């Protein structure tokens, strides 16, 4: 559910976004990657979380160009990349911005990041998430010739197969809405695979928080529908079954496993 902003909040948010982007632009001109730059991207990540207006505002202020410049200029800075990819994950949840992201340069960067070794799996996970949202728009909406849609799908699947399900996460979901939308996406098995893997990982590593959230948002029935449908690939079916079994497991058995 996206947040609504009052007029005063709107103006404050606008000033904050513009102010942080100006700082980022100055840091890039001076080729300086310091704590302030990391804080700016972290702040932009926070103000765009489930806030469509700020995501649009950032895109309208040429924020993507600054993101790409930071990716290219400071590609060895793991924490910085993570903050920016967390921000990109927020932007990619806004459907009306998908065509803005359907750009060869952007898609190429996200595809390259599927192989990133920086900061655990977070950069890879978010890169796959951004691409999964774009792929979910359907074959007719894919406008990038290279990498083409089939290649991106293949590379996402290959990447996910290498991720340990026990991976610890530096992430905090308040809603599974965007992920559950991808669980229902049968026209891109890579998108569906990413979403079901995310639910399996989060309910396995952080069961106390995310099993409850999944139940509250109707995720169990959505996963059951995936299990009953013949279209998903075997890996998706297996992950969905793991989540369903975990959610239905008696509390006592769950506690024994976690011990």
From TrEMBL:
Any one cellular-component term (Gene Ontology): Cul2-RING ubiquitin ligase complex
Keyword presence, Amino-acid biosynthesis: no
Signal peptide coordinates: none
Domain of life from the UniProt record: Eukaryota
Pfam families referenced in this protein's UniProt entry, alphabetically: ZER1-like_2nd (PF22964)
Occurrences of domain Protein zer-1 homolog-like C-terminal (ranges): 21-248
The protein's name: Protein zer-1 homolog-like C-terminal domain-containing protein
Organism: Dreissena polymorpha (Zebra mussel)
């Amino acid at each position: 559910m996206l947040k609504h902003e009052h007029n005063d909040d709107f103006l404050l948010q606008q000033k904050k976004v513009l102010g942080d982007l100006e700082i980022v632009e100055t840091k890039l001109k001076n080729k300086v990657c310091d704590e302030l730059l990391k804080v700016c991207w972290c702040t932009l990540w926070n103000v765009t979380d489930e806030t469509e207006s700020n995501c649009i505002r950032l895109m309208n202020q040429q924020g993507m160009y600054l993101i790409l410049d930071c990716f290219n200029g400071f590609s060895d800075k793991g924490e910085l990349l993570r903050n920016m990819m967390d921000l990109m994950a927020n932007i990619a949840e806004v459907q009306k911005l998908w065509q803005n992201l359907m750009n060869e340069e952007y898609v190429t960067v996200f595809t390259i990041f599927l192989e990133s070794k920086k900061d655990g799996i977070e950069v890879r996970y978010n890169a796959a998430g951004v691409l999964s949202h774009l792929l979910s728009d359907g074959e007719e909406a894919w406008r990038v010739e290279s990498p083409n849609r089939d290649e991106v799908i293949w590379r996402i699947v290959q990447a996910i197969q290498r991720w340990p399900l026990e991976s610890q996460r530096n992430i905090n979901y308040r809603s599974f809405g965007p992920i559950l939308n991808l669980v229902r996406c049968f026209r891109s098995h890579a998108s569906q695979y990413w979403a079901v893997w995310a639910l399996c990982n989060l309910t396995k590593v952080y069961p106390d928080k995310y099993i409850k959230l999944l139940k509250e948002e109707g995720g169990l029935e959505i996963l059951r529908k995936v299990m009953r449908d013949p279209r998903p690939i075997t890996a998706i079916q297996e992950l969905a079954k793991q989540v369903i079994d975990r959610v239905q497991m008696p509390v006592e058995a769950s506690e024994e496993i976690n011990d």
